[in-house]
Amino acid sequence: MIALNPINGSASEYAEAYDNFILKSTRESEYRASLAWRAEKSVGKKGNQCVQFVRSFLGASEISGMARNTKTNSQTPEIGSVIKTNESSKGHIGVVIKIEDKTLWIVESNVPLGSERIGIRKFKLDDPRILGYYVF
Questions:
Q1: Looking at the domain that runs over 9-134, which CATH code has it been given?
Q2: Which of 11, 22, 32, 129 could form a disulfide with 85 if both were Cys (CB 3.0 to 4.6 A apart)?
């Protein structure tokens, strides 16, 4: 990684590092806005079971099978990560679309159980139903 300090490198290296930083920040900001916008436009529509919905919403082929078998790799949520809860015997997953203070918003499908409808819910970060997150 090139340090953002022109003393440690040439002006062109500094400019390239700065451009890459700005580009990454812009992409992350656009990605977050895109997730929230897509979630809001999906509310009330048919979304199938939660695993099918998350796989389709994120384009994540690594999410499959039963929700209870979805692996977690973090206890800290990020925008775009998969949240796993213990809300049914089959488990439940959704997508984190917003984090603010000690609250996160998720988009999900099939809540209430059997509805197969897309919705947005809020969770407190310390909610005991949260089992963890899969961060890409």
A1: 3.90.1720.60
A2: 129
